[in-house]
What we know:
Largest sheet: 5 strands, parallel
Radius of gyration: 18 Å
Number of strands: 10
Number of helices: 6
Distance between the termini: 43 Å
Structural class: alpha/beta
Order of helices and strands: EEEHEHEHEEEHEHEH
Shape: globular
Amino acid sequence: MHAERMHMHHACISRVHHTYMHHAHATCNMQHATCIICIMHIHLSKSCVFFLYFFCFLCALLSFQVDLSMRGLSHNDAELISKVIRGNVHLQQLKLGYNDFGDDGVRVIASACIQNGVHHQSLSLLDLGFNNFGDEGCTALACHAIAGNQALRSLYLSGNHLRKKGAMAIAGALLHGCGLSAIHISANPIGPIGMKVLAGAVAQC
């Protein structure tokens, strides 16, 4: 790539395990500039860790796309993700697949998708595949991130523990009205009744 069209920054965004860090790979495309935030295994002082953590958070607030897939994130990191969602009105894609947010973390992330009754106006893709959550997290997503949300177009929920209750929550959100054009729910124990309810809701949308 041409030098004038590429800016590369290396920073850290993780909790400190003693003085070692790991996680995060976020990519943001800002017009003709591309900013890549990479996390490496680095030995740093706590003051340097804090500075880089803060710098990476600011970059995420300016990004159109944030990819934090496969970074070992858990429910303890969900509050930071929610701040990125609330603080970045230009965020279009948020990829969080293959982490371990669980029901608690997904509830926090879902609640960040709506503020004062208004959904995030730019977020069109949310990937929460393979995050070890079930019906409780799915119900939170249905209520806060799906129902009435015309901006969200693609939702990835594959590889979790969604059952009939979660499927019914999604079906209700679809019938309420939303902008989803694709929802990925493979590798979930939804069962035949849940699938039938979902199929019926999709047919009526």
